[in-house]
Amino acid sequence: MTYHPKSDFLHILIERGFLADCTDLQALDDTLIAGTVPAYIGYDATAKSLHVGHLLNIMMLRWLQKTGHKPITLMGGGTTKVGDPSFRSDERPLLDNAAIDSNIAGLQGVFAKYLSYGEAPSDALMLNNAEWLDDLNYLAFLRDIGRHFSVNRMLSFESVKSRLDREQSLSFLEFNYMILQAYDFLELNRRYDCVLQMGGSDQWGNIVNGIDLTRRVLDHQIFGLTTPLLSTSDGRKMGKSQGGAIWLNGDMLSPYEFWQFWRNTTDADVGRFAKLYTELPVEECERLGALGGSEINAAKIILANEVTTLCHGAAAAAAAEATAREVFEKGGVGDDLPTLALSAEEVAGGISVAQLIVRSGLAKSGKEAKRLISEGGARMDDAPLSDPGLMLDAAALAQPVKLSAGRKRHALVTLAG
């Protein structure tokens, strides 16, 4: 039987496709109706930006706030020192405090685009679990918290079992991660009355651990809710492209490239992604997803504009659309394309077009660039390239040169100064 929630937040999650599992849907629904609910998602500070793979959960926090509840963005200043082993085949590289703090500063800029922070009841809180993890007394922690965990049960979790089944090493450091994440939920409940942890479905075991620990230690009822792990309709992991991760920080990926990622959405994903990644009414999302033929391209532009406006602002979305029209429809050179600026010294002896394709981010290696050219997939100023050894000098670059990989990826090469 399909559950029909009474709370606005759960109604939106179910209607728009966010919900995978919940520990007690009806009790959580009642709690959401009774008053403002603080809820958190944790983010380890392993990079200076989040990427599109995180955007599903960020949108969920945004809807939480829009329906009158309190989002908590928990930075993993402590847990990043350990590393989450969930569904990884190897151990994460360990970062020092300075790198972690620098990454957290970058993440804060991402969340500020989507959430309102402040002192009001539904204003978001930015917290760091180093606040309670950094000064833990090891023996006291083992005695007070460790005794509540069964190693037998921890070994049964899919994230751990998959590593052991493949006979891949799982360090004692990583094995402690799930205990620390459970302890986070306990501390957030104790300090901030947080009663809900949300995350991707790969976090289900960690979330349930926190609920169980909090019940044992504080005898409080708290809840867990997960989103589906998304892949595109053609089987690719959401948030990845040929060029790498689709970052949410504009200094790591230009707003134009971000816009272009959404413009290139597969036809079958348009309606689903509009529900998850925009605030358009559900009926409009379904209408866009049902379009066919050339009309689906107009729907993709709407999707790209809506998602880019939330992340980078309306002006950036409009500029990206204008650049795309200039590049695709008129065969011109758009002002907003990713640009590689070379110094006169760098091109003094000439530089090969294959090198330019790599340095502009259109290929990951010289080998890949040469293959792209040999297969007829590369163009310079809209003319097909056939010679990877073609050399360009300062005179050839006196005017900006447009490089293209396939029909959808472009970059400009210019001389600096």
Automatic annotation (TrEMBL):
Swiss-Prot/TrEMBL catalytic activity: tRNA(Tyr) + L-tyrosine + ATP = L-tyrosyl-tRNA(Tyr) + AMP + diphosphate + H(+)
Subunit-level organization: Homodimer.
Gene expressing this chain: tyrS
Keyword Membrane applies: no
GO cellular component, one term: cytosol
Nucleotide-binding among keywords: yes
UniProt name for this protein: Tyrosine--tRNA ligase
GO biological process: tyrosyl-tRNA aminoacylation
Motif 'HIGH' region, residue range(s) on this chain: 45-54
Lineage of source species: Bacteria, Pseudomonadati, Pseudomonadota, Alphaproteobacteria, Rhodobacterales
Family to which the UniProt record says this protein belongs: Belongs to the class-I aminoacyl-tRNA synthetase family. TyrS type 1 subfamily.
Subcellular location: Cytoplasm
Motif ('KMSKS' region): 237-241
Top enzyme category: ligase
Described purpose of this protein according to its UniProt entry: Catalyzes the attachment of tyrosine to tRNA(Tyr) in a two-step reaction: tyrosine is first activated by ATP to form Tyr-AMP and then transferred to the acceptor end of tRNA(Tyr).
Classification via CDD domains: TyrRS_core
NCBIfam families linked to this entry: tyrS
